[in-house]
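User: Batch of two.

Assistant: Item 1 of 2:
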Amino acid sequence: MPAVDPQRLSPLALRQRFARPPEWQPEVVRERRFSGRQPALAAVLVGIVTRDEPTILLTRRTAHLSTHSGQVAFPGGKVDVEDAHVAATALREAQEEVGLDPGHVEVLGTLSEYVTGTAFIVTPVVALIDPAHGIVPNPHEVDQVFEVPLAFLMNPAHHRRHAFESEGVRREWFSMPYDDQGQERFIWGATAGMLRNFYRFLSA
């Protein structure tokens, strides 16, 4: 499959795409469930930093968290009853996790819900982030904050498929390993699945 045309990755093109969404189908909708917990609504911020070469803002979660510890993830978390909508959840969580001021964020829209194996029903909220934003990671939740070029992530040549079978149960997932100046950022699982869906949305 071809990479997304770089012209489609500009802030203007992204605004236009969400203003007039195409007909499209997400490729990954639901992971095989491996948790007995009750389903919970959640939202993540798919934040595109509008640099000369746009990037995606990602975090590495701290090792002591109860779910997805140590994994690369978007800022985000569970929907609170006080949240007016899923975008409010994503913005609140991004501010709590990495100190991102909502005033530096322009919400474009949402992608299809993604259901994780841990029973989170996640809405990806796509937004533009002003490069002048400040970052103050919350050490209780976030170990690192980093950026990956959007063009890299929107090129399926960098998408890997994985499959694992145990006791007759098969699990499949994507990964998008990125060499960040000698440090591998291993993007996989739900984060990679949502990025794959974003690729499908932009390439439709």
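Item 2 of 2:
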Amino acid sequence: MNLLDVEDLWVRFPTSSGMFEAVRGVSFSLGRERLGIVGESGSGKSMTGRAILRLIRPPGQVDAERIDLEGTNLMQMSEKEMRDVRGSQISMVMQDPKFSLNPVMTVGDQIMEAYQLHNKTNRREAKARAIEMLEAVSIRDAERVLRAYPHEMSGGMGQRIMIAMMMIPNPKILIADEPTSALDVSVQGQVLRIMDKLVQDRGMGLIFISHDLNLVADFCDRVLIMYAGRIVEVCQADRLHEATHPYTRGLLNSLPRLDAPKDRLEALVRDPDWRHQPSVSGLK
């Protein structure tokens, strides 16, 4: 059984000029794998991640035939039931994770709160788990970091702390929304290796949302390419550079490559007909 099955997902927002459809009929599944979702800004990839956790607030509307978490339809759950799902079963690392931390609470209090919210335990055990989790994301001197405030941390440290906070409840699925976009290449590699090790060790499913096709090709197992709220192509990550859809080809050709240098990169030319093509299924 898949960890997650999403079928015919729509996200809509009413505007003064009519209904805006941010996600349009998206269907895909997630096993114990690293699934990449890529596309330009505004393609609907982040909205898809938020919609899975029903984090789209009114007047936004989320509709789907089903969003099944191991056979349980999240669309039929109450808000109270969804609060039990968020964190304990599905966690999400937002864009620029450091800025998702509460600036007036210590790092330790925030991580321990995330653990105690889903586990009936005392503060001593929560602290021990927090230290263990910080060490798992390669943070040295975890005791000192527990006592620190978010503003005292670098960008890379903030990313790792947020990943630790999302992983400490031991969820089945992690949704990572461009978690390394603000990092330099060396720190980015470290954070990706940490996430990969945690996912592999725990047998989790990972949805990795990014605009960086080269990064996704190297890191993920399977890739969904989104354009204008729809999936236009699905392919194995290691064969992404063999993609056939003109949008995917345009994105790839606009990126520099060390193995295929060009004097001049191509500009992406969009075809208006792409908006009207049906969404490709990513279901397995």
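The chain has a mean pLDDT of 89.
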